[in-house]
Write the structure tokens for this entry.
Amino acid sequence: MVFHVITLFPSAFDSYLGESILKRAIEDKKIKVKFYNPRDFTEDKHKRIDRSPYGGGPGMVIQAEPVIRAIQNAKLKIKSKNTKIIWLSPSGKQFTNEYAKKMAGKCSDIIIICGRYEGIDARVKKAFKVEEISVGPFVLTGGELAAEILIDVISRQVEGVLGDFNSLEESRVASSDVYTRPEIFEYKGKKLRVPKILLSGHRAKIDEWKLKHNK
């Protein structure tokens, strides 16, 4: 799985991709993340890519042409036809585990377009077939954080990324409440214990408890 990220701030991904499971997945070549900065595809000598919006309004809008060229450059490096272009938008279709699983099974390459400022000139959506996706009913400062969420959730569905595929919480009986050693400890005079059922070894009852506490 290769993620091609169109972003003005590729360094925003460094810390998240450089740690833990995703770092190992990249090192093991289970996934790959490539970046394309629209500033590198502008004809403006100052590398400017934003202009004031037609029709008025606050803020600046990212120009279509540098973004289109960045996408074209990404597409030139993709050999497979199983490619999806995702346009991150608060008004897009809600991103889910089911969608992530579908993408992991269907696509070899995913192009993710990250917006900034007041957004990207909508004509980009006319130049390419894109799918508008939202990570939630809220507005972020930019699309980079949303892109990291997509990369994380989709990567978990790629075989080998988690090591043990049974680690997928959504595909097994799992509770949002988990416990580990010690069995009992004290805090401010109160003894905090692991639920007895988890110590029983009774698998059916434990699964029943987990289902009950699966929020």
About this structure: The chain is about 30% helix and 20% strand. The chain has two domains: 2-166, 173-212. The mean pLDDT is 92. The radius of gyration is 22 Å.
